[in-house]
Amino acid sequence: MDAVPARARVYVALVAVLAVLCLLPLPDTPVPWGAVAPLAALYAVCEHVVLRRFGGTFYPVLLAGAFLLPPPVAALVPLPGILLAGAAQPRPLRRIWRAAQSSLAVWAAAQVHEGLGGRDAVVGSDFPYALVPAGAAVLAFCLVLAVLDGGVLALAETVPVRRAWRGLLPRSLAPIGAHGLAGLMMAVLWRSPYGPVAALLVLLPMGVSWWVFAQYHRERAAHQATIRALVQAVDIKDRYTRGHSERVGQASVMIARELGMDDERVEVLRFAGILHDVGKLGVPTRLLRKDGPLTPEERRVIELHPEYGHEMVRGISFLGEARAAILHHHERLDGSGYPYGLVGTQIPECARVVAVADAFDAMTSTRSYRRARPVPTALAELERCAGAQFDPRMVGALTRALRRHDWRPTVTADETSSANPRATPVSTGPRAPR
């Protein structure tokens, strides 16, 4: 929330006022401090540890409060941990926002849970009926968070209104649902003869699973940062193809999904498409930026970039078969490609996907030396070369995917450049091997 617009500040203030209104019945409500204080302290610890080490929010304690306490009392549970977490959340406006949002969500969950008789079911350990009010409370909790988050996206992040709330609720249901089950287990044990200490034991496996999940996302973020740095380096070095790598990754994903590949393999194909030209970092910049045709010797140097790329990413284990795509994306089915002249199915499947995606984006992007071809023209050229240069199965998959999805290529080089055109595409295929 840096440089927050005035309208977003007003929105945060209104949400904070609503949260305060939820607390107004407190003077007339018996407050079981024996439950509120431990839950608030426990949530403060979780908030501090989770935010500082992993990011995100840990909801089981909040939902346990919603299942155990009256609504205005439950709304107190998140306030100390968030408002006093200066080190984890140094910006006061962000702390106020998160405190108000969490308080409203817990209040709504507690209202729904109490209205459906959930607290009696928890005290009596009435299963499976206890799952019904708990599930409804979790749904209310998710709904409030989604509605409020969508408002922030629309007002503070300037996301279009028609997209601000899209997908927020469905994405939150599964993870918060798991937190709700843990919160319900805490509430049942809290009210059981075993008492609060037994309830705390629920957090141990939940904490371990959260740590594993957070580690996965941190590792994934590190992967993305590595790839982003490599792509930016290529874009800086070869200004003629700026943005090309990202679009090849996008087209590779479209082909992979059309072929019915699983999500893990689709992600590998995305990496392969994004990094297919990383070997250009090993090619002299003067050749990549040369105006006019390349000499045979210069072309041979540029044709080494798949091998350079493969060497660069050899030690990056998470890329998997994407490394083979980087090495072989310029091979052709008839054996006339490079670097090894592989034929047909000798070429790895991932490389055949990237080859089609690479050629398609090259043809549909405006470069300094030629205008972009229309998508139908590019697809016709791919189909003409299918069987000799490209795998017909990959070409067909891309064609089918594009019938359902728009393709909006962008200019990848300065159209107003006064430089002379570089080498034109070779006649045996839709693009030059650069």
TrEMBL record:
Residues 413-427 have a biased composition (Polar residues). The chain crosses the membrane at residues 58-84, 133-156, 168-190, 196-214. Keywords: Membrane, Transmembrane, Transmembrane helix. The keyword Disulfide bond does not apply. Residues 219-414 form the HD-GYP domain. SUPFAM superfamilies: HD-domain/PDEase-like. SMART domains: HDc. Gene3D superfamilies: Hypothetical protein af1432. It comes from the Bacteria. Residues 408-434 are annotated as: Disordered. Coiled coil: none annotated. The keyword Transmembrane applies. Residues 241-363 form the HD domain. This is Metal-dependent phosphohydrolase. It comes from Streptomyces brasiliensis.
